[in-house]
């Protein structure tokens, strides 16, 4: 059984390296938290909603791509129009000619409110989200020429998003001093026993509650989440000028990530902002998939864009700090496999230890025992840090359940990574473009808003 021992050692060494990497981020995060609490906020007062309202409003274009969104788009538009504490904005809805249901619903919404503009994608869908966004951008430019209105801020949202009332004011306050502003994404919680949608709570709570700040500090770069993300006019115009008038990369499945990385390469300023009003976070809320098939399809799309397409397009360009951030983005496809590999190895060790299949002298080397001990501590810390992040947003019940929920999250990530690799290899082999692998969306009822 020497083979099982040696494989376990190899996996344990890699897990140790990944664990140390995460521990370093934890330490930086706590250092930053203490520094801001005991130094920054003792010298400077915290931002207040009155500060946001004191700034003159800039016109804002809210870009909402829609393919097969007839079930949610009307409620999203109505909720957005009623919630925004802002005057100078317009919603631009991207629609496909072969999606009559979504178009009909959107036309009714547009007839009710002049702040809604419908944008026609010139060809049948689904193409890619970037292609739809480019059509929206072209419509915005045409609207500016016809009306004389000039938009200074461009904001991305999806058809299932629940916006915060002060979102536009916060964007208006920061742009154009910053060329890109990303607000947190806060998944809406379902029942405690719903581990599939629940694992999104865990991942976003940690990523948008801790990791993004460290990434911004190390690299000056912030990945766009595709929603609750605003860009200056300069950013949109500059990227569009380098891409034949189309700012978004239509060949990428994560056009938001690609766009933000491009801004970093162009030297434009980006920021991730967590701003609370009365204890409530100014963030984008939405439901994430509660079915494993839908979750795997969505996360496979993210992995293809962030890991594979990004690597093919940009390689390891950038500063040392950005290279480290790219490594952390791309290691996700590896850690997705290692989680399940660890479960398999643990099962094999139990099998050889407690059944006649194993030799009498089967045991661990001292080196392996030390590795497993250190990794156990790192795993405990990983679970604890995630539970802390979840508790801050959702309370102690969700925080506690996040610990066993990580196992199910690892299974989903493994299946998603497997699907991503299969689809990308098929794309390389056949040359067939990767399409918009649509996720079915839901929108909260009035009682939840």
Automatic annotation (TrEMBL):
Kindly list the organism's lineage: Bacteria, Pseudomonadati, Pseudomonadota, Alphaproteobacteria, Emcibacterales
Gene Ontology molecular function: transferase activity
**Sequence ranges assigned to domain Glycosyltransferase 2-like in this UniProt record:** 153-348
Q: Name it.
A: Glycosyl transferase family protein
Matching SUPFAM superfamilies: Nucleotide-diphospho-sugar transferases
The protein's UniProt keywords, in alphabetical order, are: Membrane, Transferase, Transmembrane, Transmembrane helix
Q: Where do transmembrane segments lie in this chain? A: 332-352, 364-384
Domain of life, per lineage? Bacteria
**Which species is the source of this protein?**
Govanella unica
């Amino acid at each position: 059984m020497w083979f099982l021992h040696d494989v376990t050692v190899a996996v344990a060494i890699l897990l140790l390296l990944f664990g140390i990497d995460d521990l370093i981020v934890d330490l930086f995060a706590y250092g930053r938290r203490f520094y801001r609490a005991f130094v920054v906020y003792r010298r400077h007062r915290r931002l207040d909603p009155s500060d946001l309202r004191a700034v003159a409003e800039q016109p804002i274009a809210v870009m909402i791509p829609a393919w097969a969104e007839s079930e949610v788009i009307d409620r999203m538009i109505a909720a957005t129009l009623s919630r925004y504490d802002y005057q100078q904005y317009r919603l631009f809805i991207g629609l496909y000619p072969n999606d009559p249901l979504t178009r009909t619903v959107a036309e009714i919404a547009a007839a009710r409110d002049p702040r809604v503009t419908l944008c026609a994608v010139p060809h049948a869908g689904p193409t890619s989200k970037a292609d739809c966004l480019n059509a929206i951008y072209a419509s915005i430019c045409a609207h500016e020429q016809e009306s004389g209105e000039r938009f200074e801020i461009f904001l991305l949202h999806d058809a299932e998003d629940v916006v915060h009332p002060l979102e536009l004011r916060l964007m208006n306050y920061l742009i154009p001093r910053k060329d890109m502003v990303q607000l947190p994404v806060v998944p809406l919680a379902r029942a405690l026993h719903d581990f599939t949608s629940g694992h999104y709570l865990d991942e976003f709570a940690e990523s948008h509650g801790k990791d993004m700040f460290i990434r911004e500090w190390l690299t000056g770069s912030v990945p766009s989440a595709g929603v609750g993300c605003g860009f200056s006019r300069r950013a949109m115009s500059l990227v569009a000028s380098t891409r034949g008038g189309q700012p978004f990369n239509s060949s990428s499945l994560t056009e938001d990530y690609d766009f933000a990385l491009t801004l970093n390469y162009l030297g434009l300023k980006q920021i991730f902002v967590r701003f609370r009003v009365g204890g409530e976070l100014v963030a984008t809320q939405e439901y994430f998939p509660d079915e494993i098939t839908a979750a795997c399809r969505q996360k496979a799309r993210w992995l293809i864009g962030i890991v594979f397409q990004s690597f093919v397009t940009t390689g390891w360009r950038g500063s040392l700090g950005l290279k480290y951030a790219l490594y952390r983005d791309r290691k996700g496809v590896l850690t997705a496999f290692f989680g399940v590999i660890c479960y398999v190895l643990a099962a094999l060790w139990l099998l050889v230890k407690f059944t006649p299949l194993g030799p009498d002298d089967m045991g661990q080397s001292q080196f392996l025992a030390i590795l497993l001990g250190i990794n156990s501590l790192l795993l405990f810390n990983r679970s604890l840090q995630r539970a802390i992040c979840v508790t801050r947003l959702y309370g102690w019940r969700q925080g506690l359940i996040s610990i066993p929920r990580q196992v199910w999250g690892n299974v989903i990530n493994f299946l998603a990574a497997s699907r991503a690799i299969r689809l990308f290899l098929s794309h390389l082999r056949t040359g067939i473009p990767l399409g918009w692998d649509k996720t079915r969306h839901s929108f909260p009822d009035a009682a939840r808003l």
